[in-house]
Structures are given as structure tokens and as C-alpha cells.
Specification:
The chain has about 260 residues and is of the alpha/beta class. The chain has helices spanning about 10-15, 25-35, 50-60, 75-85, 110-120, 135-140, 150-160, 180-200, 220, 235-245, 245-260; strands spanning about 1-5, 40, 65-70, 85-90, 125-130, 145-150, 205-210, 225-230. The relative contact order is 0.14. The protein binds pyridoxine-5'-phosphate. Pyridoxine-5'-phosphate binds near residues 8, 42 and 212.
């Protein structure tokens, strides 16, 4: 199973000071040496972390393939078509959200047109979707060959069941259930992700997964054989503060390898 690393939060740290360190581009060479398969970065409409010149410099100099995440914003899609990363993953985006909260609205009229523009530019196009069976069918109808299953619900349920999040100011109030209910929901969510991966693969899709995956919750997802690739960002960058980026990636890679 391949590991793609999302480097947005290296830029988040840089933007905390608005200077030139840490450099997302420099990080890519560490990522490559640690065994990452590709780099993911999200050019958000508010440019809160990655900026246009990061994208330009990274595409021009990266020794690893680039997966650009972005919304169906005309301006950003035009930039993607010009700079040509190997892949674009279309994601929904709300200005006020802290991170991407759900999968794409696959019925949005703009989506088909955006997919066409990217595919005409020779860019592999993937859709970030909620893990349910209709989303797989709709993705197929939209003519993509790649999907990424949103694991955010899986991650949030696990945080509420097995970490101290429930007792902090960041408690997820919509998931504030007693432990046995959380356990049921965790089982059902995993089953849904598994079913989507099976159907996706059977229909010829390249199935990836990501969002909120961390050292505690990645194993059951990595054990789904139909998932070819995981995209992980925040937990690895957070762990890197304690053990360094290289080691943080190696630790994640070894959990994934042991799960297979
Ligand atoms: N995949 C997609 C499509 C995302 O939007 C994100 C977050 O930008 C990730 C994966 C990585 O999520 P996390 O940083 O929670 O690992």
C-alpha cells in the first residue's frame, strides 16, 4: 500500500510567522528518503497554508509525483491545468471550515465540466467522496478512474471513543455518544468503507483513502486490501515535532506495512 503525505501543515507552521521556514519544498526531499510515494498539497481558496508559488516551485522541483487537492474554483483549476501536477483530487471547500469536512457533492453541475477540463489537460482526476455506495456509482458515472474515500467520520469516532478529546474544548458535540454507541458506529463506519472499497475496485476504480488517519486508527483501514493508497498529513506532521519528519514517516509506514 502506498503512502502519500500531505504537506499542508508544514506551510501552516511557516504561515504562523509569515517567513520562509519551514520550507514545504525542502520537506519533500526528506519525504522521498523516508519512502513516501507521492506528495499531496491543498491549495485552498483562502491560501491559508499552501500558496501559488509553493505549488509552482514544488511541481517544478519535486522528485515525487504531486497530487493537488482543490475545489472546483475556476481560478485554481486554470492554474492546475497550466502547471499540470500528475493528479488533482477534487474536494469540497467551505471558507470557514478548519479542514475538509465531507465528501464532494457529486450532483454539483460544475463537477462534470471541471473533470473534463482536467482530463483534457492530461491530469489524472480523483474525487474525494463520502464512503457510501451511491457515491461510488456517481463517481463512475462522472467518468473518473480514481476516488479517495473520506475517512473523517472514522477518525472522529475513534477520537471520541479512545482519546481524551471528549474531555477537552475540542469535543465533537455531534458525536458525543456513550462508549457502546460509539463502538457500534465505529464498526458500521469501517464496514461502509470496506464495502465501498470492494465495489470501487470491482468497478475498476483506483481506491485511495484519507483524512484524519493517525497512528492509532490507521491499521483497520490499511488492512482493507482494495485500498491502494493512503493520504495522511496532520498526524505525521504533528508526530514530526517530537521525533522528526523522517522518523514520523517511517513509523507510519511500518504500521501500514505490518497491517498488510
Ligand atoms: N485527503 C484529502 C482529500 C484531504 O483533504 C486531506 C486534508 O487536507 C487529507 C487527505 C489529509 O488529511 P489529514 O491531514 O487529516 O491526514
Amino acid at each position: 500500500m502506498k503512502l502519500g503525505i500531505n504537506i499542508d501543515h508544514i506551510a501552516t507552521l511557516r504561515e504562523a510567522r509569515k517567513i520562509n521556514e519551514p520550507s514545504p519544498l525542502e520537506a519533500i526531499f526528506v519525504l522521498k528518503n523516508a519512502g513516501a510515494a507521492h506528495i499531496t498539497l491543498h491549495l485552498r481558496e483562502d491560501r491559508r497554508h499552501i500558496h501559488d508559488n509553493d505549488l509552482q516551485a514544488i511541481i517544478a522541483n519535486s522528485p515525487l509525483p504531486i497530487n493537488l487537492e482543490c475545489a472546483t474554483s475556476e481560478e485554481i483549476i486554470a492554474l492546475a491545468c497550466e502547471l499540470k501536477p500528475q493528479q488533482v483530487t477534487l474536494v469540497p471547500e467551505k471558507r470557514q471550515e478548519v479542514t475538509t469536512e465531507g465528501g464532494l457533492n457529486l450532483k454539483s453541475p460544475k463537477l462534470q465540466e471541471t473533470i473534463q477540463k482536467l482530463q483534457d489537460s492530461g491530469i489524472i482526476t480523483s474525487l474525494f467522496i463520502d464512503p457510501n455506495l451511491p457515491s461510488i456509482e456517481q463517481s463512475l458515472a462522472l467518468g473518473v478512474r480514481h476516488i479517495e474515500l473520506h475517512t473523517g467520520e472514522w477518525a472522529n469516532l475513534n477520537l471520541m471513543a479512545s482519546s481524551n478529546l471528549k474531555h477537552t474544548q475540542h469535543k465533537i458535540t455531534s458525536l458525543d455518544f456513550p462508549y457502546p454507541i460509539l463502538q457500534d458506529k465505529i464498526c458500521n463506519t469501517l464496514k461502509q468503507i470496506q464495502e465501498c472499497a470492494i465495489l470501487g475496485e470491482r468497478e475498476g476504480l483506483e481506491v485511495c483513502a484519507g483524512h484524519g488517519l493517525n497512528y492509532q486508527n490507521v491499521k483497520p483501514i490499511a488492512q482493507i486490501p482494495q485500498i491502494r493508497e493512503l493520504n495522511i498529513g496532520h498526524s505525521i506532521i504533528a508526530r514530526a515535532i517530537f521525533v522528526g519528519l523522517f522518523e514520523a514517516i517511517r513509523e507510519m509506514q511500518s504500521i501500514i506495512n505490518e497491517s498488510i
